[in-house]
Design a protein that fits this description.
4 helices; about 25% helix; alpha+beta; about 25% strand; 9 strands; 9-stranded antiparallel beta sheet
Length: about 220
């Protein structure tokens, strides 16, 4: 199988796949859920909820396009090969704003074949953070790699997570980069917990910048 090296899915591709609605509040708008209850409750902690607000500009969401069960199953079934739609990853968390129905966040997971780490070229475009095997972000995206040693099934999988924020927000690029990786790390911790990963190396709270653009 030919290995692909694209590591961040363009926001336009993700945005095109985000559609649909959920619930109704009786006024023609989807019924919203707060940050603490969406996508496996990864943002129960106040710091994660604050980072999610920075990234999306809202505290009320719908997530009918999220596929957590499918994502977890795809990671449990990882076999060391990537084909077709596996390159894009599985949509663990897809959020829209409940107030306007606008796409605001997409987080995908897939098996990875190799880790992309800091180098001189990438550090001109991204900030690298200390969590997992490698983690980096810009004001638009974030990517994270971590190893998951599972007991059921008994295997080790290298997992790639990527985030795209899909809504303009009025905060600095530095703050947005740090919020992006904070949110992605929190979602990755949730996925690692659900998979039963042993020592995935994902930090609690906000990952610390170590090199690159905004370090």
């Amino acid at each position: 199988m030919r290995q692909h090296h694209t590591f961040l899915v363009p926001a336009v591709i993700l945005a095109a796949t985000l559609s649909g609605c959920s619930g109704d509040d009786g006024k023609g708008r989807p019924e919203g859920r707060d940050s603490a209850s969406v996508c496996g409750a990864f943002a129960e902690r106040a710091d994660a909820a604050s980072a999610l607000r920075d990234v999306t500009g809202t505290n009320s969401f719908t997530e009918d396009r999220s596929k957590p069960d499918e994502t977890l199953q795809s990671l449990r079934s990882a076999d060391g090969e990537l084909e077709g739609e596996e390159i894009l990853g599985s949509p663990y968390c897809r959020l829209r704003s409940a107030d306007g129905g606008e796409d605001v966040l997409a987080v995908n997971f897939r098996e990875a074949l190799a880790v992309l780490k800091a180098d001189a070229d990438r550090e001109k475009r991204f900030t690298f953070y200390r969590t997992g095997e490698s983690a980096f972000a810009s004001e638009h995206t974030a990517a994270l790699y971590f190893r998951c040693r599972m007991n059921a099934p008994a295997k080790e999988v290298l997992i790639h997570a990527d985030l795209e924020h899909l809504r303009a927000v009025d905060i600095s690029d530095t703050r947005l980069s740090r919020a992006n990786i904070h949110v992605l790390n929190a979602v990755a911790r949730q996925v690692a917990s659900e998979l039963g990963c042993n020592s995935p190396g994902l930090v609690a709270g906000a990952p610390r910048p170590v090199s690159g653009l905004h370090a």
